[in-house]
Amino acid sequence: MFWFLQYRLEGGSFRSIQELVNHHMSTQTPVTKASNAMIRNPISKVKDKHDLRHEDILLDTKLGQSIPINTVCVCTDVELVGEIRTVGTWANGQFGDVHKATFKNKPVAVKTCKATVDAATRRKFLSEAYILKNYNHPNIVKLIGVATDRHPIYIIMELVQGQKPEKN
Fold first, then answer.
1. Cα dihedral 152, 153, 158, 164 in deg (nearest 10)
2. SUPFAM superfamilies recorded for this chain (predicted)?
3. Statement to judge: residues 81 and 5 lie in one domain
4. Full-prediction pTM beyond 0.85?
5. Is residue 93 domain-shared with residue 143, that is, in the same domain?
6. I want to staple 112 with a disulfide (CB 3.0 to 4.6 A). Which of 19, 96, 155, 166 is the partner?
């Protein structure tokens, strides 16, 4: 599978900064030949309460469109082999699809951003999450978090029962 977002210093490329750091720590190779600098004690990122991982989200499943397991995000306590059958899309929007999903055993709505969009469109997609994270009002959909560790990017929000989301 081709990854649009790659991180590298010298040598191989990695899907995440964490993978890059882990590689240099485990192999004890310098981050660059010129510097000969080694990673000994990486500093953990200060995590915002809205930062989530794709593995935290379980897309609802039922018979339907079959897609490879590595394109679907599942909870870490669920063991799946081969393919998973997913509901498909609940709605379509300007940036991608909206799925009904499960987070911490609660139903949620997950907006996805297509991996093929440009950086400006990705920023516009994420701006919704950054705006919502500042609000806590009963008449505004609550932001649960964002998962940006790989594509597709997710915005996870509370699921409003009985309503399908409107197109962006």
1. -50
2. Protein kinase-like (PK-like), SH2 domain
3. no
4. no
5. yes
6. 96
